[in-house]
Amino acid sequence: MSWKTIKMGEVAVSIQPGPFGSQLHSSDYSSEGTPIIMPKDMVDGRISHADLLFVSDEHVKRLSRHQVHPGNLMVARKGDVRKCVYISENEDGWMTGSDCLKVALNEESCFPKFIYYQLRSPYIGKWLETISIGATMPSLNSGLLGSIELYLPPIEDQKRISSVLSAYDDLIETNQRQIKVLEEAARRLYKEWFVDLRYPGHDNVPVVDGVPEGWRIKTISDIARINACSVGKDYPYTEIEYIDISSVNKGQISSRTTYEMKDAPGRARRLAHDGDTIWSMVRPNLRAYSLVQYPEKNEVFSTGFAILSPKIVPFSYLYCMVTTDEFVGYLVNCTNGAAYPAVKPIHFEEAKAVIPTSDILQKYDKIATPMFRKIHQLSCENNHLAEARDRLLPKLMSGEIAV
């Protein structure tokens, strides 16, 4: 296989930053319109559609040069400069965020998806970190990104290599869609039964003081323990898998960091068990929460989390209850501190909790818990697929393995 070394700028038609603050202000963002892609939306090489910002048609027309189209790449300009995504048909016409660089490639010279995978390879990631400017907030510009050296085989080989890696990503995407469907189904069921009160047999049960007869209003401390387990002097593991707040977002634990226990951050103290819910006490509006299922024995969580362990209700019920929009709003209203808004464990303990009758909880558990177990299974499959892809990627990108 004949490979040549080129610079990104040689195969790029343009490398362009998103609109600067003087062109698009935060007050111009809206709840509907055309999505605008920010670095926070770049998750594991894909664009997360979960928490997008939007701009109106007026701004899109005015800033049309910042629209992205299939085959474009986007690279984070600030922060984690290793972040890169490939624009698909699903994002055609979306807008580049101010902290991103849009790369339009000459498709006669290269296959865009091959360049995307090469940018995601470990050696390019290290290079991007090395050349970025700034110690506290690394940043890239068009010139720096254009200077990156790439290895380029003939275009047919680029396509074959990309197809191998895309097969992994396609499977991951299929699983992600199924996960989303299951999550939505579990939440709809919770809302129907416990918010709208359309649970099995509801027609025959009178509502007393806002809840069905036999149901009780207590506090979360009545149905769950808060921060029940922590690392003690007898902790048996010398190496841990640490999960901090930045690794968790809207039901997903995206990453873990391996530490020798003696070198771990001081906040690595909390322990969680199967069925526990972790909830960040810092900036609850960001919804850094997740359900923990079958954790590794040496997983340790930050003290920035409140860990809720169910006592008398199924974990699926507790998790859905404390991740509703209403509960998030309650936590936001409880925060103290302008620069570092946070809640305390007591705010979880004192929160109101509706406790249905045991037969209704059992019926809900029989339906909802298998959904969350399936979500866990699919998430594990995705982790294994991503690990296999990431092991293969540098070998394909260097020509060590021929396709």
How many structural domains can be distinguished in the coordinates? 2
Strand order of the largest sheet: 16-21-24-17-20
Largest sheet, described in full?
A: 5 strands, mixed
* Assigned CATH class of the largest domain: Alpha Beta
**Rg, Å, rounded:** 24 Å
Helix and strand composition category? alpha+beta
Shape: globular
Helicity, as a percent range: 25-40%
Q: Let me know the average pLDDT.
A: 91
Q: pLDDT below 50 for ≥5 consecutive residues: which ranges?
A: none
CATH architecture of the largest domain: Alpha-Beta Complex
The CATH topology label of the largest domain is Adenine-n6-DNA-methyltransferase TaqI, Chain A, domain 2
| Tally of strands | 26
Per DSSP, what share of the residues sits in E-state strands of 2 or more residues? Answer: 15-25%
How far is the first residue's CA from the last residue's CA? 10 Å
Number of helices, counting only DSSP H or I runs of 4 residues or more: 11
Tell me the CATH superfamily of the largest domain.
DNA methylase specificity domains
